[in-house]
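Q&A log
Question type: sequence-to-structure
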Amino acid sequence: MQDCTTTINAADTLPSSGQDYHTLLDVFDRACQRYGTRPAFTSLGYSISFQELERQSRAFAAYLQCHTDLQPGDRIAIQLPNLIQYPVVLFGALRAGLVVVNTNPLYTTQEMLHQFSDAGIRALVVLSNLADKVEKILPRFGIDHLIITDLGDALPLWRRLLVNTVVRHVKKLVPAYQLPSAISYRQALGLGQGERYQAPDIDPDDLAILQYTGGTTGIAKGAMLSHSNLVANVRQVKKAIGGIFDPEGEIAIAPLPLYHIYSFTVNCMVMMEAGVQVVLIANPRDIPAFVKELKRYRFSFFTGLNTLFVALCKNPEFQKLDFSRLKVTLSGGMALTRSAADSWRAVTGHGINEGYGLTETSPVVSLNPPGSAQLGTIGVPMPETEVRLIDDEGAVVPVGGVGELCVRGPQVMQGYWKQPLETDAVLDADGWFRTGDVAQVQDDGYIRIVDRKKDMIIVSGFNVYPGELEEVIVSHPDVEECAVVGLPHEVTGEQIKAYVVSRNAELTVKELRDYCRERLTAYKVPALVEFRSELPKSNVGKVLRRQLRDAERQGNGRSNGNGRAQQSS
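Response status: OK
Response body:
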């Protein structure tokens, strides 16, 4: 049997080019030294230079060291949208030797509680708009150190006052909260500026990020990503993109949230290492405002996902933008559809380079190289990355065959936080990680994803785990049982459909979706609900999600596509 392992020699693919990075702080320090007064990050129309980023993150690190009892290795959660505060806090925390726990600002209190308690966080930096949620979870989980920031806190004085006043008192986006033990972001920076910062000893194998994911199955688990994992992926991505960065500086647009591992590695690390100005978009869902912001920049790089490409290309003002300097558009987080790629090319004159990755791989595994992209594939493996396909018995599948995609490389996580059994299920002693995705490797080395082995659903780049939704739905007093599947959707990649067996014939779709909205993040709420008298099951009583999904894809589902209930006979 022929081995389809794809191996790229590390000695040939990852030359240091004089950059001997061991930790993320090496990457950060070198970038700040090299690029100085260049703009590093831009948000809400204001830019912070590399020099100022170094100064402010140093102040935040000094605050953590001198005004808290936090020690290297302690966990700090960051729950912020794309604002300048994010990189300041991120690098400040890393410079203090802390482990960062990226947290989605859209999380419900229940989701926050699970993540915070599982990670054992001792500190939290949170946007004031979300502080009322923090107040609700404190009686169940204590947080030693709370830092709260307002939306405009990184802006100059008068603009800061204007933005924060509008957010609080005009738009009323900050619910009332009582957190007397909290300190403000600006207070923390002020206290840290007067203290001496002491750089801790950090080993490349020390944990840098706890990035939560459900993996290929189950509830959210923390993927342990070390400094060396992330540094390797930074260098791999930069090498894969090629020598296309202008040494005089370029601009990248970052609409995807930095708390998402794809955006974290590409926008917060790779672009920073290359001296690129990263324009942070706090609310990419507001397409008109987003496009208005884009008009201000002649950007070279754009990172997005299928949902966003579709929405932008439909906007008349986006179609008028100047794309003459656009070099690379990267797509990840969800599958890229041909129609979205064609629309992007028609509007911008440029193609999209789709990649593939997972939280557990820091995240990038493969990428379509600029100038050599093959639409419908996820490209070729990163430098120093091996991939192979295995069948259900664990035997290696020959080239051209189909099997579960396995990955080995320096970007593969150390394991799942406090989950040795879950780790052993996907990561073997030789360092091979089982992705749970079914793939095919072409003769030219390009990879195609054929199917997902597990039942995870991806909605607009966010992972949704059917088991979590089913648990919430069956907690409704009128629901006897349910099954949740993902169905193809042109805009979001997949949409969620719930099949429900109800005890109450009067239960409506609206009532059930409202119930879900109170307990789940918006993108997890089923778009479609179908009531049935029974669900298909195996001989042992296991609900057959695949049978439901396959019936829908073959056109045999009962849904009329608008979310109305369809009671089966």
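Response note: Residues 1-18, 558-564 have pLDDT under 50 and may be disordered.
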